Amino acid sequence: MNTKLQSFRFDSQVCASCGARCCIGEGYVFVSLAEIQGIATFLNMPLDQFGMRYLKRVGHAYSLLEQNAAHRACVFLDMQSKRCRIYPVRPKQCRSYPFWQDDKTPQERALECPGVVLE
Asked: What is the pTM of this model?
């Protein structure tokens, strides 16, 4: 059986106890202009100030910064509570995890996210 075709579902109840694994690690959190504007508004910050403080350019796109090289955590992850500080306006990339179209199999995704339930 092709494991890439195996289906899975997501149990969001696990999010509260996993330690925010999806917010820590290598990679980028890409944001659109609309998302940038929404987050800046949510934080009550001028757009230019938000951009200088929280964004980096990656090619022709923008990504949220990381807290530091050691943690490689999203800048908006509260490290104590392991909760997102911009959860109501988090980027689409965050809202759609773990249902990304990438090269990972459901089994690989389940190893990184305890909310992934193989079916």
From this structure: 0.80
Rounded to whole angstroms, the Cα distance separating 33 from 50 reads 12
Q: Measured between alpha carbons, how far is 15 from 26 in angstroms, rounded to an integer?
A: 19
Q: Which domain holds residue 43?
A: 3-118
Q: What is the DSSP string of 22-36?
A: GGBSSS--EE-HHHH
Could you give the angle at the alpha carbon of 97 between the alpha carbons of 113 and 75, nearest 5°?
90
pLDDT band with cut points at 50, 70 and 90 for residue 1 = very low
Total domains present in the chain: 1
In a 3-state reduction of DSSP, which class is residue 83? strand
Rounded Cα gap, residues 64 and 80, in angstroms: 19
- Between CA 116 and CA 32, with CA 114 as vertex, the angle to 5 degrees is 70
∠59-62-66 over CA atoms, to 5°? 110
